[in-house]
Amino acid sequence: MLILFTKAIKDVIIYLKVNVKINVRVLFTEKAIGIDQIRPRLGEYLEQVEKGNVVIILSRSKPKGVLISYSSYEELKRLSERVKQLEFKAILDEMRELGEKAGITEEDVLAEIEEVRSCGP
User: Fold this and answer.
1) Domains of the chain with bracketed CATH
2) Each residue of 59-94: pLDDT tens digit?
3) Is the pTM for the entire model greater than 0.85?
4) pLDDT tens figures, 25-40
5) SS3 letters across 75-108
6) Helices in 1-121 by DSSP H: which ranges?
């Protein structure tokens, strides 16, 4: 599964390089603050994350959460979905390859699916 994930990440990177124009911040600041410090200055920290900074929220000196901009969050969700799609594609490709080696065609699989569907609930 690690190989599939690594391949999926490489595919996402290639996809991004070829198909997506994104602003990449090479340098960003990362700041760790205690939960007691964030409460009175939340507005200030939200302004910082809108500028591309990252705020790590600590509780008892342990990381418990992260503040990022909404656009960064949306991008992470989109990339996560793309990775899932690529992982699924890799699994399907592997199954197709195994099927071909076993002499099973996609038509055979589709016929089998139709047969099962026609049986009803």
Assistant:
1) 2-118 (3.40.1620.10)
2) 888 888 888 888 888 888 899 999 999 999 999 888
3) no
4) 334 567 788 878 888 8
5) HHHHHHHHHHHHHHHHHHHHHHHHHHHCCCCHHH
6) 2-19, 35-38, 42-50, 70-101, 106-118
